[in-house]
Amino acid sequence: MARAPVIEFWYEFASTYSYLSAMRLEEAAREAGVVVRWRPFLLGPIFSTQGWNTSPFNLYPAKGRYMWRDMAREAARIGLPLVKPAPFPQNSLTATRVALLGADEPWGPQFTRAVYRTEFGEGRSIEEPSAVRAILETCGLDPDVIMKAATGEANKTRLRALTEEARSRHIFGAPTFFDEDGEMFWGNDRLEAALAWATGERPGDLR
Predict the structure, then answer these.
(1) Contact criterion met (CB below 8 Å) for 132 and 147
(2) Has residue 94 got a pLDDT over 90?
């Protein structure tokens, strides 16, 4: 039996469009026959190399206004709630560490969706460790065990390495998708194209 194609899903909890992708990715990938590798990382260090200390949607107000209106349209189109959290963006370090710990575990995608649902579906904070613990509990997970492992030095080092890998692969935003050959697709609106490419549908391949 042939092995199923794979795509990597690189996402940031502060990314609005990653919310849309995370909530629909597994079903879309299953229909396409594609396996997903979940890759939570931090955009902050990448933005800082460009001199940005916050989201570009805050730095450029017109772009921010458009994004929130576009998010409202897209969330309504696919049946997702949308509530702008305050502050935006939120500090996602603790949540990202936990998501990375679970990235290759069955509970990882469930936790990721729960974080996004809390943040952008309900407009509540994900910044505090107590908020992350509460999300773990809603997923039926042991927050004491998981938080201890997530905040351990090994997992912290792994997150730093993954964020550096994102930089080395020229990721500049989220969500970003890669197929197994390294073809990159950026944005929620490129999810279907990434899945199609992974399965061999490559009409724009001029190489």
Answers:
(1) yes
(2) yes
Which run of H or of E encompasses 10?
Answer: strand 6-11
Query: Under 8 Å CB-to-CB from 63, ≥6 apart: which residues?
Result: 56, 57
Confidence at residue 92, expressed as pLDDT on a 0 to 100 scale: 96
| Count of domains forming the chain | 1
> Does residue 1 belong to any structural domain of this protein?
no
In a domain, 205, yes or no: no
Separation of alpha carbons 7 and 9, rounded Å: 6
Q: Is the pLDDT of residue 9 over 90?
A: yes
Residues 139-149 have pLDDT tens digits of: 999 999 999 99
ω into 89 cis (within 30 of 0): yes
CA dihedral 158, 89, 183, 63 (to 10 degrees): -160
Q: How far apart are CA 187 and CA 175, in angstroms?
A: 5
Which residue range forms the structural domain that includes residue 35?
Answer: 6-198
Cβ 6 vs Cβ 104: under 8 Å: no
